[in-house]
Amino acid sequence: MNENDILRFIGLAKKAGHLEIGEEPVASAARSHAARLFLVASDASENTARRAMRFQGTGKTVLFRLPYTKEELGDITGRGACALLALTDIGFASSLADKLESLSPDQYGEGAAQLRMQLKSAVLRRQEKARHENKRRQGKRLPGREQ
Predict the structure, then answer these.
(1) Tens digits of per-residue pLDDT, 46-59?
(2) pTM for the whole structure
(3) Burial class (CB in 10 A: 0-12, 13-18, 19+), 74
């Protein structure tokens, strides 16, 4: 895994519509609890990094400082410069964290593990919802409900 693959993956997340770019969209995603992973450019100001940490709130959203400059992130996202990004899909967030972890396990390992757990929980919730919908369509009664 090289660093260009990670930038291409961020571009893919943008094309898929799972990437918020810039401070206001990232703040909005944080307030609506849609953000799964915050990404801060390596040369972002400390003020921007502090704001991202505030967006992080309760700590359920992972925050990574990337090894890319604002200009590099701006190039991949179609902006002049970009200091702050947020991934809103848990699958994309977990995959990106795994890719970053392969580059630097010490720096990204803990966050990648947290995102893997969140992904596992999300998959289990989707499976349970699908089973419930299937039973509902078939007309089966749910346990604990009397008619």
Answers:
(1) 999 999 998 887 56
(2) 0.84
(3) middle
